[in-house]
Amino acid sequence: MITAEEAASAPGLPGRTEPVWPWKGAPVHALVQRIHQLQAERAQAFRRLEDGPHYDFPRYRGSVHKVTQAFAAASREVLALEAELAGPRAQPLLAGHVRALQQLEQTRLATVALLQLMGAPELRGQEDASQTHQLKMKVIKTMEAISKVLQDLRFDAESVE
To answer: Which own/partner contact pairs does 66-71 have at CB distance under 8 Å and 24+ positions apart?
Structure first.
């Protein structure tokens, strides 16, 4: 998928046709639906990360690499959709929801990564049960906040159209 930034950077290059961003001219509803699809892809990537073979480090490292690529691709597209909502669509409220979603996803990813590091065989026995519990609660609260932002995004998008 081509992001808005990639589409904007290609015009005028010899031998290249200008790429078309698939969301240009699409209704706001379609943009919001795509954000929800990307969020579902992120959730699937989190499940792959959590199911990773922690005991088999080379395989786990490969799994983390694939998940990282999936997150990066989703984030690039979400940021392009945010820019579309903030700029040409003049929907600052919706763009704010998308920005909050990105920040919450960054928090979630960092917290899950820290939890997984704490569970590494090299650190077993050194982990602090209280800290582990706090991090797990942070993940849960972050996921609840993500759900709320997605609901707000859907609700506010309905009032736009």
So the answer is: 70/41, 70/42, 70/45, 71/42, 71/45, 71/105, 71/109
The two three-digit tokens of residue 18, written as one number? 């200008």
Separation of first and last alpha carbons in the chain: 26
Q: Considering the chain, what is the average pLDDT of its residues? A: 82
- Pairwise CA distance, residues 151 & 71, whole Å: 21
Let me know: does 99 contact 82? Beta carbons within 8 Å.
Answer: yes
What are the residue ranges of helices labelled H in the chain? 4-9, 28-50, 57-86, 92-118, 129-160
3-class state of residue 89 by DSSP: coil
Residues 35 and 48: beta-carbon distance below 8 Å: no
| CB-CB neighbours of 71 under 10 Å | 18
Rounded Cα gap, residues 43 and 68, in angstroms: 13
Would you say residue 20 has pLDDT above 60?
Answer: no
* pLDDT on residue 11: 43
Q: Assess contact for 60 and 52: CB atoms under 8 A.
A: yes
CA pseudo-torsion sign 38, 64, 76, 6 = negative
CA 16 to CA 78: how far, in whole Å?
25
Structure tokens that stand for 57 in this block: 């480090």
